[in-house]
Amino acid sequence: MPSPTLEQLLRELHASLTLRKRPEDVARLIQDMYAAQGTDLDAATDTALAKAAQHSLRNLWHGYTSMREEFAWPVGAQRQLARAASLFANLPELPGSAGDDPARIEEVIRRAGEEIGRSYGQNDFGMDRLDRAERTAAGLGEISKRQYNKRFRLLRRMEAKLARLIHEQRRREVVITGKGALAHALPYEVFAADPDTAAFIAYFTARGHMRSVFTDGRQRQVYDEVAEALFRRLRPEDACWYAIAHVHPTAEVLAQVSDQDLTRLLVRWNGFLRQVAGLLEDAWNRHPLERETMIVRRGDDSSTWNQAAQAWNTARAHWFALLTELGQDEILDRVCPGKVPRLMAADVAYWHRMRGGGLHPDTHVWAELPLPWEVLRGEKQCPRSLVEAVCARHRVDPMAGAWTAPRPTAEAVAFRRTPELVHGVAVADPLMASALRSAGVFSGKEKRAAAQEWM
What we know:
This protein is mostly helical.
């Protein structure tokens, strides 16, 4: 079997930007890429990559993981399109991928609607249906009332399905962006222009895509010793700093990016902040949260909130860093939206109390500030001075805590291999993880006990 070429490996690394590959497997791909390129690695990079790659699935006896390597895709409208094709005569033949394309689905709904005299958006079953005389005038006299109603109901359901699909696709993008920033948006040509740049972005993104672990402490940091070694390989004259700024907006990186490209990123993050603020507001309006504790209560949509909160904090961190680098941080004197904490499960909160902990001070700051969507719409004022005053009241450093300034530059942490997880609990091996997941275990006391034993 021939060895993969450099381009094949670069394309596989680029594909990993939208996947949840283990960092160890990405490290092995990077090793292969440098080997295909004929690059002699420095000792620090060689040691760091070898330390991670030895845990690659290619080097382990079981050779697989029980965890999916993809972010979940929403269910498309293939079934509805097939049904429409059987009921409407003039619809074009569509490929299977059309069920995941909102534009194609909308086109089908509109064209099918023309066959029964229905306009897009006419979904009121009592007001928008045609009566017998109207059907006759529209040339539908041969269709019985029952057959007409069947088609009308289908198109109404398809519009509802389309709305759900668009919402879930946007939510998937929010999840990926919250984990890996804008890595998924990098075109292959930009990503692969410099192999060292590609190696750093791919590994750093894989670290960001790691799943959260059930713990009463901090989550694992993204920037580890392998990422540090790959970052130090970047040459100022060859690296694509604009691409790196999509995922790692430190002052050292942004200083290498042109003002035009920084502005492009700022505009993109500004739009994304508004999109995520809308998702947060929708979750809040369905069931307002307990802001003072941020502990989940019955009726809270914790999944949507936590995904949107992570995306908001990622986007906000990039937005702050870009404003500062462009010398426009005076904007924060007028508009300084706060961070958004994630909801905490009651069993995790109980575990914190059992360990002698309590609410994070940031929770108290969040509870006193205006809600993010109110700030972005200009309905409530949230200048930097207000955030500083609230932070001072709760003894939180506003700059070190990234409330009024970009995040402090992260120090590299030691590499730790990726654990097999079942609902956030680390498990010994993938076979055990599969068995426990199938059995539906780990909740409440069992989850806390397992976490204390295996983490």
